[in-house]
Amino acid sequence: MIRAEQVRFQYKKRDVDGNVIATEEILKGVDLTIKKGEFIALLGRNGSGKTTFSKQLNAILRPSEGMVTVDEMGTRDAEKLYDIRQHVGMVFQNPDNQMVAANVEEEVAFGPENLGMESDTIVARVKQALEQVRMWKRRKTAPNHLSGGQKQRIAIAGILAMHPDYIVLDEPTAMLDPKGRKEVMEALQRLNQEQEMTVILITHDMEEAALASRVILLADGQVRFDGTPEDFFGEDALLAEMGMEAPLSYRVQQAMGSAANLQSGAGEKRDKCKIDALDIFEKDKDLLSLQHVSYIYSPGTAYEKVALDDVNLSLGKGEIVGLAGHTGSGKSTMIQLLNGLLKPTSGTVTFEGKDIHAKGYSGNYLRSKVGMVFQYPEHQMICDTVWEDVAFGPSKQGLTGEACETRVEEALRFVDLPEKYYQASPLQLSGGQKRRVAIAGVLAMHPEYIILDEPAAGLDAAGKREIFDRIRRMSREQGIGVLLVSHSMEDLAEYADRIIVLDDGKKILDDRPAQVFAKRETLADCGLDVPETVKLADKLRANGYQIPQNVIREKELLDYLGNCTNSTAGRKSVDTENRLDERKQGDNL
Amino acid sequence: MIRDITIGQYYPSDSPIHHLDPRVKLFATLLYIIGLFLSKSLIVFAVAGVVLIACIVISKVPFRYMIKGLKPVWILLVFICIVNVFFGKGEVLYFQWKFIHIYREGILQALMRVVRLVELILGSSLMTYTTTPTELTDGLEKAFHPLTKIHVPVHEITLMMSITLRFIPILIEELDRIMKAQTARGVDFEAGNVFQKVKRTGRILMPLFASAVGRAGDLALAMEARCYQAGRPRTKMYPLRYARADGVVYVLAIVYLAGMIVLKVMVG
């Protein structure tokens, strides 16, 4: 059992002489008891103190006031330090930054080696831990040859080899693709159910929180909610305040609760959807296109790899195109080709009908017209202040003085960055703000086309919605064409007008979202999933509901269900109930 | 492409040399290098070359891999040749044109220097080809362990080495991403004078440093959470243990050096 009693924690800011100049209280009296075998989702906005609290649990930090005890050992007792850290393991967010060794088995052995165990014991423990996360076969592999999900499983194995009772994970899936997330979550559930491992999972993802047996919400350094996920998702006002959203399955169930007729209103909705999509599809033009483009990395060497294989593609203005594909499918190669960062091995890339690699074609012109926002916005920050950084593009285009300033101001206004940050260093901003500055930097060049690579990575539900709404506005109001690269099929379903699916360097699908998601088997072959909405709609259909195939957006589905009348009240959402039941059974095991 | 740089060029194979204890390999390589610097006689280099080729054959590392190790020093080798051949002084003049004088001694000097450097590089890369970075750092740690008596933090230094090796590919990839991201914004890395180039380098290095510092903090935290404490005794999953072959190689290495000394006395 872990007990936190009135835990307070202050960070002290010191000047160069070590005098305290300011204190910031992060934890303001946290009371909690965590029992063995629980699966806890620890939620909270950025700055709520959840990471600070998690570090109290294994004595990385010690309370300024109050106390934390782990199985009756106080974290302030210096003699118990290594006992506590052995009992409470910690896994962090970035899989690359927590690996020490040159291969998998040595990585897992690091903890036991630190504890001074005998060689035979270490070998046995490493084997056991790797088998638990199903990575034994990869034991000799170097970490940089593993996927993100595999790396996180190794990090978990590294903790398991120390035979802990509790495992604390600080957003372990935040940097992973959907496949990696699934792997990690399955490993955690297995450990919790089969080994009775206590799991404390810090997360922003409500689907993950729904798998927990208990949800704890921290806000402003205090426990704001402590109860079951079902109860938590019912707290509409609290969720809204926290910028969170209940999982879709739960919201669907709610919508079904106010049950209505599924048939009425269906025809009308369906038509509307169709017109919406067609209208957009007609706009397609050849602004930016790939013709028979192939790209081979390191041709003629042992590392030769075909990244893109004879791809044809045309992208137009005013349209949001989603680019989907698992890691390694050729997505990032494709966007680099579109921007002229890579030159195709064969085939042509054209912009406004001209070959961008033709002699005399200006790379700078292309890059000012085809903007690109990268996954890590800090990489593309060039100048010392936000204002200068946004001005970089326009000044490269030869704009000076007022013309340039107008562009900058316009762009910063559009992304809604508060004026007080204009003179700040871009590197000091929060993740969401950095991304806004990156987008502004591109917008200030007045591009015709923008490529966005995972623009919502690392943002919470509210931040994500905000950035996507802005992108949509940009496309609709200014007619800018958008290519949206995302792992999240949910985001693509929600915001794309058209979806392209890549697999193994080939274009597999290129169609309207509803059509793409209808091809479930093709998607599965590409290692992709359908969005949660489509899965739920499928389940509802299996239960006799007639939901049109083109319902793929959350709002459409919820509206659809909300419009129902009582004629089908007898048919409650069996599947969503099953889902919740399964979860409960999991808890009882 | 910047990403193609490879560090830690281990060539996995199942040869007797791969199975040797890293300490023996370090020791033998050291004696081999000392042997190369004992003499300037081409006969000595020929003997060293034969031994080296024999070792390469035993190690099962393909010759083209070995040659690849010379690529980065290609220009240096050519430079050595030019300097020695064209500007070396001597007695027997072979060729003269304007200010260029080519002497016999110059050519021999060039040949000697090039052969020595090639043998030096091939010999030490044979060690890195047959020893994993982990074995190498473990070997260094053990070999220098006596220095802990005079308060040299041997373990910490070798751990630093292995962590550095682990992070180099990660940072190279990140550098590549940063350069691409800035190129996409219109930064041209080729154009401009030296000052502009220096300024641009700063723009790349700043985010890279910021990220490296962040990563280091994360790593320290993760290590601490896994009960690591500098100076606290640790154990090893696979502790280094000598086998009989290691003893044999120790003897062979000493015999080799002794032979080289004898050879030097004989041929000068």
From TrEMBL, chain A:
EC number: 7.-.-.-
Signal peptide segment: none
Top EC class for this record: translocase
Entry keyword Oxidoreductase: no
CDD domains assigned: ABC_cobalt_CbiO_domain1
Subcellular location: Cell membrane
Topology in membrane: Peripheral membrane protein
GO cellular component, one term: ATP-binding cassette (ABC) transporter complex
Positions in coiled-coil regions: none
Function recorded in the entry: ATP-binding (A) component of a common energy-coupling factor (ECF) ABC-transporter complex.
Subunit structure and binding partners: Forms a stable energy-coupling factor (ECF) transporter complex composed of 2 membrane-embedded substrate-binding proteins (S component), 2 ATP-binding proteins (A component) and 2 transmembrane proteins (T component).
Annotated family: Belongs to the ABC transporter superfamily. Energy-coupling factor EcfA family.
Name of this chain's protein: Energy-coupling factor transporter ATP-binding protein EcfA2
Organism expressing this protein natively: Wujia chipingensis
Taxon lineage: Bacteria, Bacillati, Bacillota, Clostridia, Lachnospirales
From TrEMBL, chain B:
Entries under InterPro entries matching the protein: ABC/ECF_trnsptr_transmembrane
Gene Ontology CC annotation, any one: plasma membrane
Keywords on record: Membrane, Transmembrane, Transmembrane helix
CDD domains attached to this UniProt entry: EcfT
Subcellular location: Membrane
Domain of life: Bacteria
Annotated membrane topology: Multi-pass membrane protein
Membrane-spanning intervals of the chain: 30-61, 73-94, 247-267
Stated name of the protein: Energy-coupling factor transporter transmembrane protein EcfT
